[in-house]
Amino acid sequence: MSNVTRLLDAAAAGEPRAVAELLPLVYDELRKLAAVRMGAEAPDHTLQPTALVHEAYLRLVGGGQPQDWNGRGHFFAAAAEAMRRILVERARRKGRHRHGGGYRRVDLDDALSVAAAEPSHDLLDLDEALTRLEATDRIAASLVKLRYFAGLSMPEAAAILDLPLRTAERNWTYARTWLHREMSRSS
User: Which of 8, 57, 75, 171 is the most buried (most CB within 10 A)?
Assistant: First the structure.
């Protein structure tokens, strides 16, 4: 049993010391996941990877109810889901009229580079499509969360989901095709 798994078990049992000892062990990995995810965000986002890690960590271990983690993989899958929810909540909030609606600030000099670098699909559209995929195929949806939101490689995601690599690759191909079709329909 690794130190992370032992501390996750202790944190689930309600030991506050374990929660404090856990952060230094998982912080670097969570920071890498957040940096990968934030790198895919639009250039005008204001959330930094460090803030995303802290907020996700607080949601994972700082709540009133102890969580029962089934090991390191389960913890990082939950971290990916927490990061996804945080980013979706921020995107929804930013889309509200009182928070600027669909407007965003763009410097004239950067206008062309922003337009070229902007992703073709909105995070909210992806979230809605991913929710629909989860209703039909939980494994494919989990794979997307781990790959897209947590930035894991295919072998890492397959190991967390306890899938053979070839099966994970087939699920990844299916999920990407399914999401592309769904997002094309909605736009």
Answer: 8
